[in-house]
Automatic annotation (TrEMBL):
SUPFAM superfamilies given in the database record: Homeodomain-like (SSF46689), Regulatory protein AraC (SSF51215)
Record InterPro entries: AraC-bd (IPR003313), Homeodomain-like_sf (IPR009057), HTH-like (IPR037923), HTH_AraC (IPR018060), RmlC-like_jellyroll (IPR014710)
Gene3D superfamilies listed in its UniProt record: Homeodomain-like, Jelly Rolls
Keyword entries, A-Z: DNA-binding, Transcription, Transcription regulation
Organism the protein comes from: Parapedobacter pyrenivorans
Protein name: AraC family transcriptional regulator
Residues of the HTH araC/xylS-type domain: 187-285
GO molecular function: DNA-binding transcription factor activity; sequence-specific DNA binding
Length: 287
C-alpha cells in the first residue's frame, strides 16, 4: 500500500478569512482530523489545553499532553498529535506576515523564546494564577472573529501580543536582563544557521557573517548552550534531514540533494554518524 505524503497546511486552507485563525480547540480538531499524521504548517501555531491527555511530537521530541499546557510552533516544524479521550482548549494560528505592518520590527515575534523553533522551549506549563487571564485573552479574541474588520484585526494583534508577553514572563527569572551581547550574537547565529544550513557547514563561515572570530563563536555556544558551533550547525542539518525523511515519497537521494550533499552515500554516512541509524532505518520508525 502506498503511503500518503505528509501534508503541509496553509492558513488559507483552514477556513480562515484573514491571516489569523482563533477558536476553541475541540471544534478545530473535529474539522481537521488528520492531526495524528506528521505534518507541517506555513504559519505560527499555538494551542492551549484546558483538558486532555495523550502526547505531542514536535520535530521528533515527544511531550505528554496535560491540562494547562501551551504549545507554540513556528512555520516549518514537523509535528503530530495523539490524543487520549476528549480534549479542550484554544487554538491560535497566524501567518508570518500578520504583524509586519503593525510592528516597527518585523522580526519582533522571533524574540519570544517559544517562537524560536526549539522544541524544548516551545512547551509551557501555565501556572494556576495565570490560567484565567490566558483563557480570558483567548475568549476576547474569539469574540472579535465573527465580524472581522481592520479595527478588529488590530485588536486581535494587540490581544495576541498581550498573550505572548504574559507567556514570556514565565521564564523571565532565567533570562539575564538586559540581554548580553553574547546572547544577541547567539540568537543571530541561530537565525543564520536556519537560513544557510544547507550551504554553509563551517563555524568560520558564520563567524565571518557575524564579524567575530570562530574561536569567539565557539566560546559563546559553549557558554550558553554547552555545545560547539559545529554541533549547532550539524544538529540543524540533521533536523531538516529528519523533516524531509518524514515524506515517504521523497527518495533518500533527493533528501541528500536537497541538503547539498555530494551523493546519497555521503549523506547516509553523515546521518548515521550523528544519529546512530541510517536514513532508511529512521524512516521505518515513523508511523
Amino acid at each position: 500500500m502506498t503511503r500518503q505524503v505528509y501534508p503541509v497546511y496553509d492558513i488559507a486552507g483552514l477556513d480562515s478569512r484573514s491571516d489569523i485563525l482563533v477558536g476553541s480547540f475541540a471544534p478545530y480538531i473535529g474539522q481537521h482530523r488528520k492531526l495524528h499524521v506528521p505534518h507541517r504548517h506555513s504559519f505560527y501555531h499555538m494551542v492551549y489545553f484546558t483538558k486532555g491527555a495523550g502526547h505531542h511530537t514536535i520535530d521528533f521530541d515527544r511531550f505528554e499532553v496535560r491540562p494547562f499546557q501551551l504549545y507554540a510552533m513556528v512555520p516549518g516544524q514537523v509535528h503530530r498529535w495523539a490524543f487520549e479521550g476528549e480534549v479542550e482548549g484554544y487554538v491560535l494560528n497566524f501567518s508570518p506576515s500578520f504583524f509586519h505592518q503593525f510592528l516597527l520590527r518585523p522580526d519582533y515575534i522571533e524574540e519570544f523564546t517559544f517562537f524560536q523553533g526549539q522544541a524544548q522551549q516551545s512547551v509551557l506549563a501555565v501556572p494556576e494564577q495565570m490560567r484565567t487571564r490566558i483563557a480570558d485573552i483567548f475568549e476576547e479574541m474569539i469574540a472579535l472573529v465573527p465580524s472581522i474588520s481592520m479595527l478588529h484585526l488590530d485588536k486581535l494583534r494587540v490581544l495576541a501580543l498581550r498573550l505572548f508577553l504574559d507567556l514570556a514572563s514565565l521564564d523571565e527569572p532565567a533570562k539575564p536582563s538586559p540581554l548580553s551581547n553574547n546572547i544577541v550574537l547567539l540568537r543571530n547565529f541561530r537565525k543564520l544557521v536556519g537560513k544557510h544550513y544547507s550551504e554553509l557547514r563551517l563555524p568560520k563561515d558564520y563567524a565571518a557573517l557575524l564579524y567575530i572570530t570562530p574561536n569567539y563563536l565557539n566560546a559563546i555556544c559553549s557558554e550558553l548552550l554547552g555545545q560547539s558551533a559545529g554541533e549547532v550547525i550539524r544538529n540543524r542539518v540533521i533536523l531538516e534531514a529528519k523533516r524531509l525523511l518524514v515524506n515517504p515519497r521523497l527518495a533518500i537521494a533527493a533528501v541528500a540533494d536537497e541538503l547539498n550533499f555530494k551523493d546519497n552515500s555521503n549523506f547516509t554516512k553523515f546521518f548515521k554518524k550523528y544519529t546512530g541509524t541510517t536514513p532508511e532505518a529512521f524512516r521505518r520508525t515513523i508511523d
